[in-house]
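Quick question: what would this complex look like in 3D?
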Amino acid sequence: MSAPRGFALAQCDLVSFDRAYAARCPVQQPDRYRLLDALPEGQVRIARGAGVSYVAASFGADAVSLDMRAFDRILAFDDTRGLITVEAGISVGAVVRFGLARGWCLAVVPGHPRATIGGCIAADVHGKNPARDGTFRRHVQAITLLDPTAGWVAASRQEHVERFDASHAGFGIPGLILNATLQFVRAPTAYAIRRIPVRNLHEAHAELVAHAGAPLLYGWHDGRAGRLGRGVIRFGLEAQTAAPGRAPRTADLPAQVTPWPVRTWNPLGIAAMNTWIQRRWCRPGNATVGVEAALFPLNDARAYYAGFGRAGFAESQWLVPHATYETFVDELDGLIARLRPRIGLIASKLFDGTPDGFGFDGQGVAFAIQLADPRAVPQRTFIEALNELALRCVARPNLIKDSTLDAATVRRAFRDFDVARARLRAFDPKGLQRSELTRRLEL
Amino acid sequence: MTAIVIGASSGLGRALASELARVRKPLLLVASDARDLAALAADLHLRLDANVATLALDLAGEPNPGARVIEALREMPAATALLLPVGVSRDDDDFSLGVGAIGQVLAINLHAPLAIVHALLPVLLQSHGVIVGFGSIAGARGRGRNVVYAAAKRGLETFFESLRQRHAPRELRVQFWKLGFLRSNLTFGKTLPVAPVDPEVVARKVVAQLDRGSFDRHEPRKWGLIARIIRVLPWFVFRRMKA
């Protein structure tokens, strides 16, 4: 191949955010438009944003990762309608900050501010209250993709509708997302966040449903035997007054958190953390919090992620329907009492959408269960039992979060797996867009 | 008032464009691809409220790049700064380049900067402006690698020396930055003896120095010492160094 001017390709060591998968992969770093389609025609490739997906969604041993971070510019902004067009490599944090300075904000924002807009679309991420705001796709008006065969494609709700739909939770398969037009919503001055302590996950369910209309709504829960679900539901309403004082801006969580040499989240550490959370957060109360701080709570979680050590962590995230919620929670309680897994934290969120393809949406409550040392046998035993329980309860897994899922489990979880897969691969019949995630799950 | 950045679409050129926009200079951005320029201009305008014009120009193929730049300046405020962070290197630049490739490397690294400076010199003299060139550590001493690139950068250094010799700083400031390794597509994935510097860091320094007379300096400064050591190495030692 005769490389064009500026073509940069190198072998890089990449690791998923949960540290479950690492590989030495070829990475191309285009910084000009002509370099975006500079790879040979039949080359297997996958788009890569900030690389903050929990799973290895942006790289794989046999694929060239296209590092899109140079494509981070704002292309257009309509201050009257709140529409912004950005390149796919821009971080969600940068978009939010640009909007906030002008009185606008994104309705759906993932926890990591470095996640790119392309990544948010490819994973169809959810924000702080998916029951109210849906997932990211609801706020995307149009995208431009590069298909290795078809070339540039402009897709929206009016043209190339199927490709537009498939690109959300398409994990990069329907094409390389180059830019997107997003719909802002009016930004509040701050959020008035109220804390409601809950003793168990049954109470949590009631509180989540009761506050379904709040712009911010999520729970944090203890995952230990005998204490399962004890925690707090936080819901935030738009405040008209600014947060008191001038809070120092926390630095963005890095794309890769350097693990501590010693794993802190052993039974003692988990007990200490939960006790601290219980005392610090699980009391009734109100607080006014700045918008940025409320949208990116992970900026304060650096030590939490580092504490998982070199072995990393796994996040089992399942969306449990309301109809099977009681069964799921009761059996989860029994499972944890029996197997005593090391669960760092459980987060809960309410969903009220329509499941589509491999997206993480539906009606019910999502539990994100973060486990230390996921390769240890007792932890794996728990994960397998949890997966079985979730499947019995007709729960839906979040593919972008869970490195422990295998193809067989996902096939059972998505009854229309073959249809959903065919819908994605229709845009990539040669299988050129591949990652470790798509390989592992046979997407 | 207007600052012209040649090679503005990536690396140091893009960083310079952002930094100049931040200090509220009207900009004429020149690069080969109109798509890159449009994206950059939109971004600078929206984020920094910058006044940006663009010119798509293939320096390797344009016979008279200076005339095109002059033409593009017609609607702009008077030019007071010309920055030339333009360059291209190739991995196969080890005496194996064909005549076309040699011409391309020379055109982008040497001919185009010279031609543009020649064309803009009267304008910049009139505005008592500044011309900023960028050399490379590769030009410190000829090696068996980056052969044409290093020759072009050495030639550019000589040209800037001539400019500095000819014009006193009060009539024209001439600044030449000899750069060490920059984090860019040219160094991406390469094993380097010294960690590369972010273009944004260099851009901040360059823009901060625009009003500070004429000079020729290494950036980062430690590269001055490295270049001196490379130059004084006895020939029999230098010859044995890995190309």
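Answer marked as accepted. The interface with chain A takes residues 9-11, 14, 33, 35-36, 39-40, 42-43, 46-47, 88, 184-186, 188-190 of chain B (CB under 8 Å).
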